[in-house]
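Annotators were shown the component list below and the corresponding predicted structure, then asked to write short factual statements about the assembly.
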Amino acid sequence: MDISFDLLGNALVSGLLLGGFYAAVTIGVSISFGMLDIVNIAHPAFILLGSYVAYIMNSNFGFDPILVSIAATPLFYCLGVAIYHVYDVAFERRGDTALRGLAFFFGLLFITEVALTLIFGVDYRLVEAIYIGPTLHFGVIDLPLRLLVPALVSLAMMGILQLYLSRTFIGRAVQAVAQDPMALRLMAADPSRIKRIAFGLSIATASVAGAILIIIQPIEPSVGRDYIGRIFAICVLGGMGSFAGTLVAAIILGVMENLTATFFGPSWAPAVAFGFLLLTLAFRPSGIFGRA
Amino acid sequence: MKNPIFVLWLIVAALLTFVLARLVDNAYFYFAGYVVLQYIVLATAWNILGGYTGYVNFGIPAFIALGAYSTVVLHKTTSLPLIVMMIVGGIVSGLVGVGTGYLTLRLRGTFFSIATLAMAVVMQTLVTNWAFVGGSRGAYIIRPATVQYLGMNYIEYLFLMMLGLCVLSVGVARAIEKSRLGYGFATIRDDELAAEASGVPTLRLKLIACGLSGGFMGMAGAPLPYYVTYLDPASAFSLSYAVNTIAMPLIGGTSSWLGPILGAILLGTLQQVATVTISSAWSLLIVGVMLVVFVVAAPKGIIGWFWK
Amino acid sequence: MSATDPILQVAGLGKRFGGFVALADIELEVARGERLGLIGPNGSGKSTLVNCLAGTLRNEAGTVRFEGKLLDGAPAHLRTRAGLSRTFQLPRPFGTLTLAENLRVPILYAVQTREGGSRLNIEDRCRALLDTVGLADKAARLPKDLTQIEMRKLELARAMAAEPRLLIADEAMAGLSHGEVDDILALLVRLNEQQGITIIMIEHIMRAVLSFSQRLVVLVAGRKIADGDPQDVVRQQDVVAAYLGS
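Structure shown to annotators:
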């Protein structure tokens, strides 16, 4: 195989940026699965919801998708709170999260995809914004703004969340509930309420993740399925609740996927994430940053 | 009721169904009926792992496809009878089931479930890139017109084979329920740690469940190429298989062999009706909504309404 | 092995969770038919030790020999089959099975799989066991219908159903009333004296441990600090300090 270094360099750079974007997509699950132990496999569905919201606002009113998504975060937060409430009452309190809780989220994932198909059809949708077309050039390396802006937004979002978790009382309570719900109770904080807030936050991130998704690629309802494997591969590889781990794992996956797509063809890309996941689960389930 | 007598009743029910189908003598009945029967097998197979041991398998399309694509390979290279293809499909799927289990079952159940999701996509990618079975463009399978030594056309033959598979899978499911193996499965579901402490070899039993579950799904998928005559990855790995196979036992009731049958017949017929009167997308939506509603509000399923 | 060899030999056992050392350098020998008490403040590693002995956790350092055979990483179900049973601190019944069925499981999987495991009448065995703990009239009920003490009795009965030669009773009496403690105590003594079962009792209830144990072992911060006659051990300075603070 004739590896041109231009091709390799660009594949690496765009893989890096892609990885930054993947981190945004995964951060919600790092919270819900990594910290709260809720296996929300429907997360990609909420991301797609965010994408379609951005699409509607952008195609009808010309609003910038990222700004729309930020404005929509309170709505998504409320959605998250509502869903957690149902999950808590129906499954967590009955102790049936493993079978029926999981099936619940699977059902939500499925319903969302079918409903979106019924409303929007299977045509690809995309958004328009000033930063989607242009590309910066540094010598042989191309930096498409289409990838750069989402990566930056992703980093910003993660930074804000990390600050929130480490500086505010609620944020620290969220970290505490992940480690020791009993101690939290003794501190007169209600674990249920904290989990509700945390899950709401996790779904709120889906709004922003959805907007940057539709900037990076055109979407249609079944796109969510490709992301399940990526999200959980990154979450597990990154050591579950660790943000830093999530970022590193996301970048690794982004680079590996991009290299595979560039040199072996794009039809192999979906297998990379899942292959990663299976290997991680088989050999190092605690992830890169997790404790063995 | 002792199991051999139960199996006898199953065979009687199956024969009656076949006689009924012959009397109705409508090709659509065979086509639709095949789908329902296929779902009885899939739901029963899923329940052996999901309902009995409590481990959720999302990779259903992968196992069905393994069976279906084994048939495609065998069809192109040999001229083996369908029964042999079904057995081969079952063995291949069963082995993959055990393999997946071996890689992931020592972890928590949720990781197993996620891994099965992953496996389905990996399998689909592999098949899509495999030119021999047609890759993404799919494969055409010529369905034989008749089965001479039985004097019926091929669709009737497929219907009959699926009836036989129903009898086999339900018979096995019930036999497990009443046996030592069934108790072992139940303890894994109830409290795996306590099960181990009580002497139950949990890993081994889980692998058995994986093998049986995957194997039956593969056997159910094996005749599929002859049924559809055109098999492509998109339809073989269709998400509707996954949702239906999970929804049917959860709605019917996971605690016994009867639940998957109830769920399959109810949802299967509902979907046929909805597809014809509204659209297939709407019928899938209905299944999804019913799944969520039942799981939240009626965890014991339909069985739970009638038996305490 | 002869009848005088110890039934359990623990040498240099250590267990860590990441950076936290839960157990270090545990040496322990238990004689056949002995009644051993194991005490220690909360967090001293008692339950971790039980889990390492029972196979629920794997110890990184040291060895455990049961009836002379090295257990080395054997999973819990093999240890139960070999004759080592344990109860759980918080009862863990099989929620969808009746009481009788709960007892059926160890009989099916631990007893019947032993070489020379007889074709027992399982129904009778279950009933007899439930009788021993006074739960025979609830044989067809589900665990969720039981009171706290009944659940603990079920837990004991299930451990006994595996026909152990060594039984580890992990805080089987926690939260029980005076009379209920006496019931369980009497049951354990009967098991030991009539059936020769070696029993390791982990307990916080001092009067129970002191009256039951022939020998007392004290664990503090993952280490064994005392091992001997119960009356002597409780008077040892470092033991008193561990409980009351120096």
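Statements collected:
1. The beta strands of chain B are 139-140, 146-147, 152-153, 230-231.
2. Chain B touches chain C through 20 residues (CB under 8 Å).
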